[in-house]
Amino acid sequence: MDLTAFLDGFALVTEPANLLYCLVGVLIGMLIGVLPGLGPAATIAILLPITYTIDPVSAIIMLAGIYYGAQYGGTITSVLLRLPGEASSVVTVFDGFALAKQGRAGTALGISAVGSFVGATVSIVGLTLLAPLVAEWALDFGPPEYAALALLGVLLVASIGNGGMVKAMISAAIGLLLATIGRDSFSGAERFTFDSLQLSDGIDFVIVAMGLFGVGEILYNLEERHGKPHVPAAVANVWPSRKELKESSGSIGRGSLIGFVLGVLPGGGAVMASLAAYATEKRISKHPERFGRGALQGVAAPETANNAAATSSFIPLLTIGIPANASMAMLFGALLILGISPGPQLVDENPDLFWGVINSMYIGNLILLVLSIPLVGIFVRVLRVRPAILAPITALITILGVYTINNSTFDIFVMIAFGVVGYLMKKLGFEPGPMVLAFVLGSIVESSVRRSLLIFDGDPTGFITRPISGTLLAVFVVVALWPAVRLLRGRRAARSAAAEPAAPTPTRGKADHR
Amino acid sequence: MRHHTTRLAALLGGSALALAACDGVSTSTGGSDETAEYPSGSVEMLVGASAGGSSDLISRAVSQGLSDALGASFPVINREGANGAIAAAEVAAAEPDGSTIAIQNASLFAITPLAVSEDEVTSIDDFDVVHGVSRDDYVMVTTAGGPYADLDAVKAATGTVTYGTTGVGTGAQVSCALLLGSAGVEGEAVPFDGGAPALTAVLGGQVDTACLQVGEAVENIESGKLVPLTVFSPERIEYLPDVPTAQEQGLDVEVAQYRFLTVPKGTPDDVVDRLVEGLQATFETEEYQAFNEQNSLTPMEIPGDEVVTQLEEDKQRYAELVEEYGIDLGGDS
């Protein structure tokens, strides 16, 4: 790392104009993050023409701010309205919404803001020091490694559920089936599309999530609250107490690491990170039964991890010129328009841009944390609104959000259909979480396995002989067999009347997220 | 997963453009009795791809140029899906009055039909082609220090050569498949979801080679991480002057992606003429030319009827070659 260039970058960022662009960027990002559907990629597309006229470094600082600012905003609807706008916020809903119902929405949002700040900052430090090294590592991650990682993810999905394992597995299996809808990306064959072009690219994640979580919840509440007088949820503590912060500090630390490492992987990195962080917390917790019923760690860990992942996804873009997700692709396009080609030479050719952008993120995240404090207080008031008013507004937000994805009314009807499914699931005691997450991971598993087999020329032993995928599969086997092992050990312990507890050890937790 | 883009986005962008274009409107129609001159309102410009890809960026660059030249707003609306077939269907069904236009990709008409079933084929007969825009060439690359140092090494390969593509039924797949087919080498296509993952795979040595669009690969070629084996254009391209074409290396393979402006069939001639006028003004601006260069695009500013002729030729040629080498674009082979 070139220290002078690094410091020059800081000097550049602290110029008043750049600070202003940074503020504008993160503020816009945070606001659009609140509305599900309208994502950072689209926002960057809208603002692209404006950037022609300003200095490239300022432009990229602003656009990057929109991207990571949106990660902060996304939490708010997940916690307050049960509307996860991004796949990486789905696990936040489990405990976040439960906390909100207990009147602890402020605590949940506060802890997310702190976690997001810490996670992002840890990730930026990692980005500053290790970017080229980590980028090389990401290249070793080929289709077989993705296949093994996503498979592990599906297993974790089944285990994080709150209700019965069987119900979680049924729900996940349906999610995997839903992922097969659309044109087969290997053979071009149509699968479950019923000759509809609208379905040829499958169903968008947001449509499924909005339907199952958002609309499903609204329908359920209509029935539940019918006739009951409205009791506004008490919004007691708007900011987490010192004790609560201390309680979550471990989760935030682990979430940061998991997020940084997995975020480097293009495609699905942030989802896997939030999932792995949540599963890790649940496994090492002394009270796993609290998860899904309002465990603070269940919000802190995934929110930290997805912000850390969002930040480290800059690494492939800035060091090898590979956009890791749709928003990064927009930034890639923006850089090209500004006359800068992202790639291996960026750090040498445009050190001011490289370091300017990275250093602006330190400041941007600080701004976001400061902004969060008053905003959390305002947003939690949403919960005081009567359901008769809040429900239609929520419905409107979901419909608007889904429509904006593809400008398609068809998608709205698909979402409503999923809403009915979500309602029925809730009535029957199924959780939508495993279904949504399996839906996201299913397409990764399928395409990665098929891609791997093409590369291996049909020989599946390649999955085991490659070091990273082999290790991941070993972890998979351990995690899958663990309940059985614990059961056996428990029996033996009971027989020998020894009081040895069979709780999983922290070292196992670490193995989970490698 | 599909990417997120919005009509709201387009509307906001459009209104910004409309504000910027107010001057143009007043000067071109001010005082004239020709009130009905095209464009009288905003013109929707559909793109069959997500925001951020080259199709989207090209549409946005042209949209900017058209609104400057013709004095109306041309909001870009992303209607992603099915290689662009969804946007195409919408344009074909739109009112043929110039209020809906789209820059479309040659691959949808010349290559996708080889990979999908009969009733999903989009036909160019449903459109009037206004004008050609630009060409996006393909380059075959391998990782530096990989098993194949140059094209001769590939030609001499005895085992199966794996190649990453940007998806089934894309020009990237056809170019690699035809090249290996004509060299008599066994190839295995590994489709990825777009250029970025395919680039990652070849950089990491997950696949032996990959066919990519020049703009996607050029940075890593310049830094020496990727070795260009060949380009598929009729002559060498400006952005990679040292890379020989496939034809120079004795393989008669020529594949290109090009884009052109289309309107629904039956759009009046005066509307088409105005659009041609606007396009030509756009092509002459410095911003647009710099945009092409930045994105490694070669201008292909030819009249609409020539585009149609070339499309028909290409479609015929690809179909014959695919048949000749027994390539199944859709299948797993």
From TrEMBL, chain A:
Keywords attached to this entry: Membrane, Transmembrane, Transmembrane helix
Domain DUF112: residue ranges: 19-437
Membrane-spanning residues: 18-38, 45-68, 107-134, 146-179, 199-220, 257-280, 314-340, 360-380, 468-488
Keyword Membrane attached: yes
Keyword Metal-binding: no
PANTHER family tied to this protein: TRICARBOXYLIC TRANSPORT PROTEIN
The protein's name in its UniProt record: DUF112 domain-containing protein
Natural source organism: Cellulomonas pakistanensis
Automatic annotation (TrEMBL), chain B:
PROSITE patterns, alphabetized: PROKAR_LIPOPROTEIN
Signal sequence range: 1-20
Pfam family, one: TctC
Alphabetical list of CDD domains matching this protein: PBP2_Bug_TTT
Keyword terms of this UniProt record: Signal
Cited SUPFAM superfamilies: Periplasmic binding protein-like II
Gene3D superfamilies: Bordetella uptake gene, domain 1, Periplasmic binding protein-like II
PANTHER family (alphabetical): BLR1237 PROTEIN, TRICARBOXYLATE-BINDING PROTEIN
Family in the record: Belongs to the UPF0065 (bug) family.
Name of the protein in its database record: ABC transporter substrate-binding protein
Species of origin: Cellulomonas pakistanensis
